[in-house]
Amino acid sequence: MTTGSSTPNAAHTQPEAIPAPLAGLHVGAGEGRVLRALASQIEVKAGEDAGLSFGIFHSTFPPGGGMPFLHVHRSADEAFCILKGEVEFQLGEQEIRARAGSAVLIPAGVPHCFRNVGNNEAEQIGIASSASIVTAVEQLAQVAPGDIDAVAQLLEHCDSELLERHPHWGP
Known about the structure:
The protein is mainly β. It has a single domain (33-162), classed as Jelly Rolls. The protein has helices at 131-140, 148-157, and strands at residues 33-37, 40-46, 55-61, 66-73, 78-84, 86-91, 94-99, 103-106, 112-116, 122-128, 160-162. The strands form 2 sheets. It has a 6-stranded antiparallel β-sheet, with helices on one face. A hairpin with a 2-residue loop joins strand 6 (86-91) and strand 7 (94-99). Helix 1 packs antiparallel against helix 2. The protein starts with 32 loop residues before the first strand and ends in a 9-residue tail after the last strand. The relative contact order is 0.20.
């Protein structure tokens, strides 16, 4: 993230908060907060602490990985731009496969989940109209594997709901 000069502190293990933009903000490759959630590596470019009305993250996930739990955001829209691979989305009753170069636009109120159906890693950019969605993604990295109750609580905190308590596509 380019916000001026700073001296890295090797002992500093917590990621720094992304500052609210004064006249804009540039977050370069690898300069966001990097974490692992479910099977994905996620780089948060802007969460609630950026002071914007939206959040944005870059995610990379292996074959079969993604967000396999059907959920709905009651008051936030989401958009995913597929950079690499092939990602299957469940959007309400509709299943679609999105390849590199595709955009998947999900209005508030549409149940959805997604997974990588390709043979190689998939990459996408996620944008949510409420930065609280990105904060929930960050908090998901702290959830113990298999703790579906904690996942449900995180979603409730950002006006969302977990609709299935098991992966949508089965094992």
